[in-house]
Design brief:
Layout (H helix, E strand, L loop, with lengths): L7 H7 L1 H4 L24 H13 L10 H16 L6 H13 L4 H6 L18
Helix pairs in contact: 3-4, 4-5
Length: 129
């Protein structure tokens, strides 16, 4: 079975829709209301973490369908920040996976065609080597 086609909104973000426009010509652009407001049952720390995740995500990436993942990630990250020593490795693995899927890690940012900042070699004392 072939790999499912990438949704048009992700193809627009990573540039593959420009490279192969024929793949997406019959699709309407996916519209979303965005992520929306945090759920009311979140604590103050979890709500602040939700807003931080939303602010740090790539523009146009998080949609209403990502709300459950963002909610879980916000709860886990708030829990980690309140007591990092008591945070179990299984929860940390889940948090890392969610952050990757939401495009919030350096490796996942490359999936969407975001170039990492290049340092000026003139400022690097080891550039001569």
């Amino acid at each position: 079975m072939p790999r499912p086609k990438k949704p048009k909104h992700l193809a627009l973000l990573d540039g593959s829709a420009r490279k192969n426009p024929q793949r997406y010509r019959n699709e309407d652009r996916f519209h979303s209301d965005g992520l929306g407001e945090p759920p009311e049952h979140l604590t103050e720390a979890q709500e602040a973490t939700w807003r931080e995740i939303e602010a740090k995500a790539l523009p146009g990436l998080l949609m209403a369908s990502d709300r459950f993942m963002v909610e879980i990630a916000a709860c886990l990250l708030a829990e980690y920040r309140s007591a990092p020593g008591d945070f179990r490795s299984g929860k940390l693995t889940t948090l890392n996976s969610l952050l990757y899927k939401l495009g919030l890690t350096p490796g996942s940012a490359q999936r969407f065609g975001i170039e990492t900042a290049k340092k000026d070699l003139a400022d690097n004392p080891f550039a001569q080597f």
